[in-house]
Amino acid sequence: MGKRFWFSFIALAVLIVVVFYLRQSNSVPARNIRNSLQAVVRKPKIIPTPTPFPFESLTIPYLRKQTYKSSLGNLQQIDQNSSYTSYLTSYMSNGLKINGLLTVPIGVAPKDGWPAIVFVHGYIPPKQYNTLDYYVNYVDYLAKNGFVVFKIDLRGNGDSQGKPAGAYFSSGYVIDTLNAYAALQEAHVPSLSESSLTTQEKSSKSATTKQLSTTTPTQSPAAIVNVNPKAIGLWGHSMAGNIVMRTWAVKPDIPAVVIWAGAGYSYTDLEKYKINDPSYQPTPGASASAGLQKQIQKFYGKPDLSKPFWHDIAPVSFLSDLKGAIQIDHAEDDTVVNIGYSRDLMKLFNKTSVPHQLYEYPTGGHNISDPGFIPAMQDTVEFYKKYLQ
User: Among candidates 126, 149, 128, 129, which has minimal Cα distance to 137?
Assistant: First the structure.
């Protein structure tokens, strides 16, 4: 046997003796060494969590902590019929001027003000989008049934300021919707009725029937619109299904939500069903959103509600907080957004006490066009009358 063997053997023997001594001895040096070794072995390795953590601004808890406050700008009258008056107006959201079409019923408002709907459009190529050209029949049907309808032009769409953010991996459109909601809540005059109007207010209200082009200092938007701040619902189509569900999760006391052919509620459903929209046109904003999606998945992996980030971004994680009601409308032959999105969402709502209903129409496609349009609108109006009036 060589010297190396005997050296290793002696070293091992010494180590065994030292370990035995440290384990058995009650001497002060032995106890101190044992305590030091145990502290090193047992002390957990703490990895600090960055604050704020990456992409926190997309999460529902983060958005709940923010403040949403806005008001309607001047009203520019553009049309009037026997049922309602239409105005172009705007409001501020994140420092951006967001435009919209506002319809106000003709007649005396209910004691607490008109019930209202924030109407959120689906995907239309942002440069192609125009306030007056899309969802005309939808708005008309709702407006003729006694609702103030505020169809907002999401940031970067049409002439609204900002860049189009995309729905699923940005909070921009959700913030625009929450600020539109706040603007309608501000458009309220307490106990406004014909019997209680001052002479100036009566003159102001009467003047709205004389084809005014804009509001004047004596004609505040609130006096003309007079919304019931406790009776404002949401309507969303396609990508706006995700937008209004996230909005509702941020503001759970919204009393009524209607979604037509929506998508993206759990984020795992986006992986499952995808979206097949032939009208989609990539824009710099959309490319940034797609790039953001890749960054998120690189950092957090694919959607998985058991992971904190995906749990906090998905509106379905907060269904038990919701205090209003929801109706979903979807055509079975929708080739853009699979009806499975809506069916899966209903299964989740079945586990809650939230009033919910899914109406399926045999035909109508992604927009629920004729012959499904009128039945779907009738179902929508009946729902809003039940929960907003």
Answer: 149
